[in-house]
Amino acid sequence: MRKKLIAGNWKMNKTPTEAAALIGEIINQTSGATCDVAVCVPYIDIPAARDALKGGAIWLGAENCHHKESGAYTGEISTGMLKSVGVNTVIIGHSERRQYFAETDETVNLKTKAAIAAGLIPIICVGETLAQREAGYTDALVSYQTKIAYAGISEKDALNTVVAYEPVWAIGTGKTATDEEANETIGVIREALRCIYPGAAEDIRILYGGSMNEKNAAGLLAQPEIDGGLIGGASLAAEKFAAIVKAASL
Q1: The CATH number of the domain where 23 resides is what?
Q2: Catalytic: which of 94, 96, 103, 128?
């Protein structure tokens, strides 16, 4: 039985003061949750979020990292830096990073390895565009992205990772795959993991990241292959996020 994980991705939102206030509300409204919960916040918010989360069970996450330990990479941040300030998980390869900041399957692999080496749990994002879906490439594409992301990673290390299926056409559009469509594609991702890790694929959590919200969460989370959600807009409102956490705790 895979324990469900609900991870909030705040994107470029919230000042440190706002972050601390929102986390306080989330803590109050998610007490008693039986699923894992994470908040992935902008870099500037990490110290405030860490202090607000201190002593609790909610994971502190970042939204991106660089694969090098240090160097002349203006504007970037290393996994070691994140670890040093209390971060324990990091999103890698989000569709917006791929779309706007030239993230590739190869850099996703490098960042995943760097996160693992630093003792962070990577949340590795894969997913297709609308054009790719309509052309019938979804299964082949997510399978390929998954296999490249895990290239050169041991089974032991893979067990400390999470995958998030992000249909790019559903990110920030209000559209979402049907429960069955999401479950089917996540099943394809798991089959790709079976090809690499026959003994571990059933234990790696795969989240759905395509506009999961408080209204559709229960149906999606009831599907057998869906192990939680990577939540965008709904993670910025404590009551909405808490409703999703509640649905994952049933």
Answers
A1: 3.20.20.70
A2: 94
